[in-house]
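Appendix B, example 12.
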Amino acid sequence: MGEMPSPPAGGSESSIVHFILDHPKLWGVVTLLAIAPTFAPKVSSGAVWFCLVCAEITTVALASSIAKKFDGSRIIWALTTGLLSLILFVWYGLWLTTDKTSANVTSPSQATKQPDTAPKMKAHIFGISVVEMPDNQQTGMALVQVTVTNIGPPSAAINWQVSAKLMDGETVRAEILNRPCWLWSTNRRYHMAVPTSHYLQNKTDPIPTGGTLTGSLCARFNNVTRNNLEIAGIPFTASFEDAEGNRYADTWGLPGEMNGPPPH
């Protein structure tokens, strides 16, 4: 008699795979895992976990059947497969029952537009008088008159600055004086005195919403003569900060007869 052909290598492994794929319990597990998402996340979390518990029980039963079929230890197969499937199914259940849209959905209270609390202020220069210092004819001085309008929440106007751009393109920053400002006419006669109570740097109370603040800035330009400042078109800039450190500014060109071309 001829010898019986030996079974092909890997035949045992192949039979295990076919046994598992053909086993009805496997497809029971697959069906339960496929049904579970239909209840998530808003229909019923309990139904999701019920499907997964049934899938876990069926998986353990499938592992026990495999061990019995191929003479393996049913306890080891059941415990190992049950533990691995339990970890997987718990993670799957948590993923299904977590509302993944909650992080992107804005609640009605959040959808309500919050009031804008950022300060909104505006400076407006409405007049400038350029004179020379009565005790120093080489130093020009400007009395800058400004109105501040506040359309935001109450805030003070602080840290005032004044600068001018000269004919040669140089921008010079003035020193803000805090003493009575004496404005003199060209014939050196007394013209007007501005008290310190009128100065904007001394008006530090918050400006209410919709309110205005009007005052003056006495700006001394050291080493800049009156003739270099009093030229039509010379831009003067007054600026300030609100309570949060935001800076606002307005620029005003000096009117009058020109002593030369405006600065660039």
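The first strand starts at residue 121 and ends at 133. The chain has six helices and ten strands.
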